[in-house]
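2.7 Reproducibility. Because tokenized structures are sensitive to small changes in the input, we list the exact sequence used for mRNA(cytosine(6666)) deaminase, including any N-terminal residues retained from the expression construct. No trimming or masking was applied before prediction.
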Amino acid sequence: MAQKTEDAEASAPASQNGEDLENLDDPEKLKELIELPPFEIVTGERLPVNYFKFQFRNVEYSSGRNKTFLCYVIEVQDKGGQVQASRGYLEDEHATAHAEEAFFNTVMPTLDPALRYNVTWYVSSSPCAACADRIIKTLNKTKNLRLLILVGRLFMWEEPEIQAALKKLKEAGCKLRIMKPQDFEYIWQNFVEQEEGESKAFEPWEDIQENFLYYEEKLADILK
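Resulting structure tokens (single pass, no recycling of outputs):
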């Protein structure tokens, strides 16, 4: 499987979550970051603030962001119309399995044909070609699954292979769109750790709207 690695930092070394290792004064913390196991899938309900601010930022050149963060909402409807909802997030270590594939392997390994599934992903970047293929195969064999993918950035969108994969996703019935500022706020409120007893308001970064429009135009050109 092709690694989902974007442009690497050319200057000081950094952790995979955007923390400058040279600026860490705590030797134990530094040791912990350096020795982080490189191949694992991390799951949870809420992700740390600094992970969100670095990994989800919709920058044009995503230097140093070599992991995928996937927040999900699953709504399951039974024959009587009752709906049960659950949410959580995944992050990958870009090697044995990407977050998109891990979702189907660990979060939804089996689907009951008697139920209807509406799934929404909020992903830091769009799928690579291999993950898109896995999504397409799952949608084709699971007619009771509806998937909406909202992405912060487009991964290697200039590559013909990636463009073809995104088009095939659309043809398979997957809804794909770029995150608006309101979507980042939704992630902040529902998937990001907050201080105990205190909920801070989402603070948009300076170019959030400009970058949304940039990626929205690129995606529209690809899918037309």
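The two ends are 28 Å apart (CA to CA).
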